[in-house]
Amino acid sequence: MSADNVATAEATLAVQQEAAKPAFMDYKASDVFPVPFGYPITGFDRPWDTPTVKTPKVASNYVWDPELIKTMVLFWFSGDTSLKLIGHTGTGKTEAVCTFHAALNLPLITLGANPQLSSRDVIGGFFPGPSGVYWRDGPVTMAARHGMSVLVDEYNVLDPGEATGLNAFLEGRQYTIPETGETIVPAPGFRVFATINPKTAGYNGRQNQDLANDDRFVDVHTKYPEQDVEVDIIKKSLAAPSLNAGEIENIAIAVAQGASAVRKAYMGESDSAGALPCTMSVRCSARMAKWTVLYARAYAGGTPQLQPLYMALDTVLANRQRPEVRSALHEAFRLATGINPENTQA
Questions:
Q1: Alpha carbons 267 and 262: distance in angstroms, whole number
Q2: How many angstroms separate the CA atoms of 294 and 305, rounded?
Q3: Pick from 143, 43, 51: which is nearest to 101 by CA?
Q4: Rounded alpha-carbon distances, angstroms, from residue 325 to 147, 222, 241, 280
Q5: How far is residue 17's CA from residue 31's CA, in Å, rounded to a whole number?
Q6: Mean local confidence (pLDDT), 261-287
């Protein structure tokens, strides 16, 4: 090959390598998230122009809570490393973190906590391999090494002693691995997200974490959406081509009304003697709307004993409760919607 051909090949290779690099995107926060900000937050770095292997999938029907996304954006710029999202089941804690990273094409490592999870599982350890034992990074160490985010779901089921071993990472400080002597300095972009349910009725095995561990986090509370917002979420989740817009609207309104009544009566929120031992998440309400449609179709022209709305309520929530709680759930929906459980034509 001639010198000219070699030079041409090298130039072509250089162009191809440059084109293969991910573009470094610079955005205003309001360009990325459909939420108004009181002042322009510039320099919002979107380091990948396309999703990475570890980037969560985009949730097309996700509806942002303006307060939550503003807090998450401010956290990203704050210089803090760790954010804890606190809220009842189905208030969108995990989905908010995943959708935040999907919107920015950022990689996210997700870890589900459990009481048996050890430092070896989270930070890393030696494992047997074909050529003997080798060191393998745990998800937190991997994220710190490569400048990625890590999400620890159900953080407060961790043993407090094991969680305390993460304190250096939670502050973004360097960490020396005792087994190898290697010092990990978290790369830019490293963040730790944690989700927890409050220590109220219905959530078992939640631990009080060490005060020093808690102090490493900044906290944000998540909440259920307003009823009109939940109606829109349910409508977007319904894939029911056989139903017209009015029917979908009616189902969505009825489910959202009933779900709101259940949440208000939940003993984690209500001090009433008759408070419910369970609540209803947004994913549960969306699932209930889907099952209402399924039952309505299955019994079209027939006369089931229960209205499809209540058959769906049983399927997604009430059947796993005690009989008296099931009856209370039915009554909460009846009072909220004005729809009687029994099919009067049966």
A1: 10
A2: 16
A3: 51
A4: 47, 26, 34, 13
A5: 29
A6: 84
Q: Among residues 286, 291, 336, which one has the least CA distance to residue 310?
A: 291
In angstroms and rounded to an integer, the radius of gyration of the C-alpha atoms of the chain is 25
Query: Rounded to an integer, what distance in angstroms lies between the CA atom of residue 304 and that of residue 180?
Result: 66
Residue 142: partners with Cβ closer than 8 Å, 6 or more residues away: 109, 124, 148, 150
Number of Cβ within a 10 Å radius of residue 317: 22
Helices (H), the chain: 3-20, 29-32, 66-78, 93-103, 119-122, 139-146, 160-164, 167-170, 211-214, 227-237, 245-265, 282-298, 308-316, 323-337
CA distance 158 to 213: 12
Instruction: Give the whole-angstrom CA distance, residue 289 versus residue 313.
Output: 9
Q: Is 25 helix (H, G, I), strand (E, B) or coil?
A: strand
Mention every residue, 6+ apart, whose C-beta is less than 8 A from residue 340.
Answer: 307, 334
Least confident of 4-13, 109-118, 264-273: 4-13
% of the chain residues with pLDDT over 90: 47
Confidence of residue 19 (pLDDT cuts 50, 70, 90): very low
Euclidean distance between CA atoms 172 and 82, whole angstroms: 8
Residue 189: partners with Cβ closer than 8 Å, 6 or more residues away = 47, 106, 147, 148, 149
- Which range (16-30, 93-107, 160-174, 264-278) has the least confidence? 16-30
Average confidence (pLDDT) over 325-333 = 96
The answer to whether the CB of 223 falls within 8 A of the CB of 91 is yes
pLDDT on residue 76: 87
CB 198 within 8 A of CB 88: yes
Please report which confidence band the pLDDT of residue 341 belongs to, taking 50, 70 and 90 as the band edges: very high
